[in-house]
Specification:
Elements: E1 7-11, H1 18-32, E2 39-43, H2 49-56, E3 62-65, H3 82-87, E4 92-95, H4 98-103, H5 108-120, E5 124-129, H6 133-137, H7 141-153, E6 165-168, H8 182-200, H9 202-205, E7 209-213, H10 221-225, E8 232-235, H11 242-257
Parallel strand pairs: 1-2, 1-8, 2-3, 3-4, 4-5, 5-6, 6-7, 7-8
The structure holds 1,3-dihydroxyacetonephosphate.
Length: about 260
């Protein structure tokens, strides 16, 4: 269907102790082994990053942080930096999650700085974008989502942005059990890709993975992942147990093989 390797990422948010994180990571690593047609990434809380890295051992499962600062070091109490994430073995970092935008005052300008800093360190940024219910009902979905993508990538060209992953997460679908219809997700994903093509060039835009997030579950993953521009999933609640997450990984493998 496409050359883009599907990517299934688990965002554990503020869940799991070190021991729980290790056990879950071990179960996922055992399923994925040392290679898979689908890229799999786990995003534990920061205090579990090192332990999860160890639990993943030689498996192909990648490690993601849930946030970063843009500076490498300095007087930034409470922050983590791309340099430190790299030090602990992170190959990916989620940025601009709606929970950070909503509850921690994260702005488009801050997200752009984080994106640029991650690229310098060759950490794959997973850039989250998405509209609220109010914005969707006002017909502003594409304006909001494309605006967020544009602001985060401003001043960066396709070469610098090469590894970028975008996650479209409609806010009204996060943790609510309300998923976007597969065709509605596809429409936004296609619009994101077309906008990236206009801004930065088509050949790069065609290589960018655009994930869907928002109440992805074992029973809807396959349908979402059957859409041409839905290259994977960013999974919250259903990534917290191996029983739920493994079928979603398998849906990603199914997409790769279709
Ligand atoms: P849920 O899968 O729990 O809706 O969360 C989605 C999400 O926010 C992933 O980043």
């Amino acid at each position: 269907m496409t050359d883009r390797k599907p990517l299934i990422a688990g965002n554990w948010k503020l869940h799991n102790t070190v021991a729980e994180s290790q056990a879950l990571a071990g179960a996922i690593a055992a399923h994925v082994g040392d290679g898979s047609a689908c890229e799999v990434v786990l995003g534990p809380v920061a205090t579990s990053l090192a332990a999860v890295k160890e639990a993943l051992g030689g498996s192909a499962v990648g490690l993601a942080a849930q946030n970063t600062h843009w500076e490498d070091s300095g007087a930034w109490t409470g922050e983590l930096s791309p340099a430190l994430l790299l030090d602990v073995g992170c190959g990916y970092c989620i940025i601009g999650h709606s929970e950070r935008r909503q509850f921690f005052g994260e702005t488009d300008a801050g997200v752009r700085k984080k994106l640029a800093a991650l690229l310098v360190h060759k950490i794959v940024p997973i850039l989250c974008v998405g509209e609220s219910l109010e914005q969707r009902e006002a017909g502003k979905t594409l304006e909001v989502v494309l605006g967020q993508v544009e602001a985060a990538t401003e001043g960066l060209d396709a070469v610098a942005l090469a590894p970028l992953v975008v996650a479209y997460e409609p806010i009204w679908a996060i943790g609510t059990g309300r998923t976007a219809k597969a065709e509605d997700a596809q429409e936004v994903h296609r619009a994101i890709r077309e906008h990236l093509a206009e801004l930065k060039g088509k050949s790069w835009a065609d290589s960018v993975r655009v994930l869907y997030g928002g109440s992805v579950k074992p029973n809807n993953a396959e349908e979402l992942l059957s859409q041409p521009d839905v290259d994977g999933a960013l999974v919250g609640g259903a990534s917290l147990t191996a029983d739920n997450f493994i079928p979603i990984i398998d849906a990603g493998i199914g997409r790769a093989e279709s």
